[in-house]
Design a protein that fits this description.
413 residues, alpha/beta, Aspartate Aminotransferase, domain 1, Aspartate Aminotransferase, domain 2, 8-stranded mixed beta sheet, 16 strands, 40% helix, globular, binds pyridoxal-5'-phosphate, pyridoxal phosphate binding, pyruvate, aminotransferase
Length: 413
Amino acid sequence: MQFSQFGEKFTRLAGISQLMDDLNEGLKNPEAIMLGGGNPAAIPQMVELFRQETQQRLDDGALLQAMLNYDGPQGHDGFRQALAGLFRREYGWNITADNIALTNGSQSAFFNLFNLLAGDYADGKKKKVLFPLAPEYIGYADGGLAEDQFVACKPHIDFLENGLFKYRVDFDALEVGDDIGMICVSRPTNPTGNVLTDEEIIKLDEIAQAKNIPLIIDNAYGTPFPHIIFSEVNPFWNHNTILCMSLSKLGLPGLRCGIVIADQKIIQALSNISGIINLAPSGIGPALMQRWVESGDILKHSADIIAPFYQQKAEQAVHWLQEAIPAPKLRIHKPEGALFLWLWFEGLSVSSQELYERLKQHGLIIVPGHYFFPGLPDKNWRHQYECIRLNYAQPEEKVKQGIAILQQVINAL
Ligand code: PLP
């Protein structure tokens, strides 16, 4: 059977597909240590709260209503109103439910946005998505309908104490030409755990506004929920910003509920696309979380339960790693948020892909770093083949075992 161009493009072995395959394989092999995927932790306190809320929403009929009905293509009205109210109250953002669209996970929102605001235009122009700070999220890499739809900029690297480092946007090197359709950053960043500072975000916003292109902030791990963030930063939104959020990293990835906050024109466009592709996004997540959004409990649980849980785990894993493989053999990106540690083996004698294969043979699954540089013009930049991403949020024993395997394989190299 011959696939169309679309079929060929989207059936190639994409980085994200490899990740999902490995995740599946690991699930079949109970011995494998899965530090590769992006599954959030099942935090016992949160799981109990989810259970109670599910029971409550079953009893009051909201869950059944959500199962019995289609929502509109823009998503559940009551949930969007509750979200708009929360952001108006907490941050003074001038938004209503018309500034919000729900999607089946934020992943699908990125696909629609990348192809709405970049790619091939009717007048023959071609526009790209700019990632100003590589490395960036692997899941963006194959989300363009056009070829070469992404361009990324190398980071500036700050060397910090204790074998840590931090990426910063290299504004001197950042070129935003007329071929850029939008700027996109994840904050906190998957894979590095970097959190762009308020100053960096303000500067990127100024650049985007000056160019009359939107700035997408992927807030999947960000503040105010799920707040997997260990530094003091402010949520950011204005009418030129497209803020993408999700219920996934709160601990509910199976709900597939993404949230886009943007100018009404963008929201209307997303809603039209959603009608064609999905009819409507799922109403289960909205039914389950609406009361938490109305009461503000979603912020309280994020700050009081989720953030400390991940921060403690991140610090513990950094400590174990530094003991096992001291600097300068291993440098770790300063963990500021998200579920991952980004490990840099400067001068590694094999590529991160080869390291991945060797670790896999020993029963440890991580993600090789080079996948996280979509659009980077310099394919020879050694740094991208010297890093790996590790999910630190899995059970303690697994993380410890994984680090022991990493130590053994790295020492053998
Ligand atoms: N953005 C980032 C940075 C992510 O890491 C992920 C998932 O891992 C997503 C977006 C997509 O999440 P979801 O589609 O579950 O909302």
